[in-house]
Amino acid sequence: MSDLDELYREVLLNHYRSPRNAGHVDGATHAADGANPLCGDEVHLELALDADGRIADIAFSGHGCSISQASSSLMTEHVKGRDAGAAFASVADFQRMMVEGNPPPDADFGDLEALAGVAKFPVRVKCASLAWKTLEQALRDGRLAHAAVTTDERSQ
Amino acid sequence: MSIREWDQDAIRRDFPVLRREVNGRPLVYLDNAATSQKPVQVIAELTRYYRDYNANIHRGVHTLSQEATAAYEAVRDRVVAFIGARAPEEIVFTRNTTEAINLVAHAYGRAFLQPGDEVVITELEHHSNIVPWQLLRDERGVVLRYVPMLADGTLDMAEARRIIGPRTKLLAVTQMSNALGTIVPVAELAALAHQHGTVVLVDGAQSVPHLPTDVAALGADFLVFSAHKMLGPTGVGVLWARGELLEAMPPFLGGGDMILTVTMEHSTWNAVPHKFEAGTPNIADVIAFGAALDYLAALGMDAVCRHERELLGVALERLATVPGITLYGSADLDARGGVVSFGLEGIHPHDIGQVLDGAGVAIRAGHHCAQPVMQHYGIAATARVSFYLYNTLAEVDALVAAVHEAARFFGRVRV
Known about the structure:
The structure holds two protein chains of two kinds.
Chain A: H1 3-7, H2 10-17, E1 30-36, E2 41-49, E3 55-63, H3 66-79, H4 84-100, H5 122-141, E4 148-150
Parallel strand pairs in A: 1-4
Antiparallel strand pairs in A: 1-2, 2-3
Chain B: H1 8-13, E1 21-22, E2 25-26, E3 28-29, H2 40-52, H3 63-83, E4 91-94, H4 97-112, E5 118-122, H5 131-140, E6 143-147, H6 157-163, E7 168-174, H7 186-195, E8 199-203, H8 215-218, E9 222-226, E10 237-241, H9 243-248, E11 259-262, E12 267-269, H10 283-299, H11 301-319, E13 325-328, E14 339-344, H12 349-358, E15 361-362, E16 364-366, H13 371-377, E17 382-386, H14 393-411
Parallel strand pairs in B: 3-15, 5-6, 5-7, 7-8, 8-9
Antiparallel strand pairs in B: 1-2, 4-10, 9-10, 11-12, 13-14, 14-17, 16-17
Helix pairs in contact in B: 2-10, 3-10, 4-5, 11-14, 12-14
């Protein structure tokens, strides 16, 4: 498989074309905005946590490249139904995969493993990470208010 | 006027990096609006300084210092010749175009602009010709106004005539848009501005590397540009200003080399241009920039411009056949330099850039530090191709093939 095919796995292109959980959440309890100024990617994340602290519903909107959009879509699928603690653990696992190029053994990533190839493209790691950093921000600081996340400060 | 025949193969041999492969394919470097590649002549000049006469300038009685001073100051003379200036005292070396604009915003803007005075810029500007003026506005209460662009990426000259008036104290305008390649009729704007006594700064970062430049014909009061976009090293910018403006302006940065005398209470300033070159300057890179100027002068900027326009015409014609492509900018080739900004339906420019890189084709994807231009089109980013003198028609073929490949690659997805 060429590097390019490894980056743009079929499952990612599918999520890019047909994003899951795109849109908004009725009765959202948490939200956050993330941006990558380098390429202009923007993601807006809304979550509804139930009484047990589980992510009952999650949706994203915004615009960006195939990697950032596919990662947003896959992330929402992955964390839906998990509690905040498990979601934080997934964020950490995902960041580890972006460094190591392989999914952590216990991560139960499923289709998310398709993003492992992004690790070979350091510039694109920021695209893939945007949704996850925004999720972390939403869960940590995003109750009722919106918070901003930046994955890259550079601009030229 | 050129003194060297246009020999494409010989030109390419001068640029060692063009021999390398990227992702198993020959490098096709089409990101020249970001920075140009460097010929062996420039690299050799840089090495020669460090090998043979590395020394600080303007202060040594020893031989090496005198040689380095002479080589550094000789580049000022070459800049004078290259842009049709009058004297080396009008040339200030900075770090880059951005620093040169900031120098003017600080040293001229703070000293001579009053609250309520208007600074006029355009919607086409690079962030570096927007942000310094926003900072000045916030600090000094000047009013910042924009000449809008039209849908084809050219400037709305009717609006320019309406906006530029007696309250306009400074007009800061790009001569060529880095995002779209639009060539702005700067001489016409400058003439308009001068009717109202307006001082005119021309951002030549994209134009000076690609078009013949004559500051007198431009009618500018300040011209700024960067060495690294015109075959020179990074870390060198040029500010040209009418001598009397530099004389009247207070210093920008304080320190060594820019003073005449310093007591514990007070200092007096060195003569221009040294008043604006505080501290040890970028000696090596300025000297190497001299070789870049020689290289361009030998080819002749008319010939450089002609070559790029030929590539542009072919590229525009052939890219137009790619399914789903949007080409931004004017259809009038005379109104633009060798830049093609485009998008593909349903494909983010970042992904276009990635697929092209896989084919060895280096382009820029993003907002090009010109977000107002992107906002005008309601987009976040474009893919941008920018040519220079070493690019070839064969490379345009490689580009077009790679863009077709990108369209196919992302078109293959079954939803």
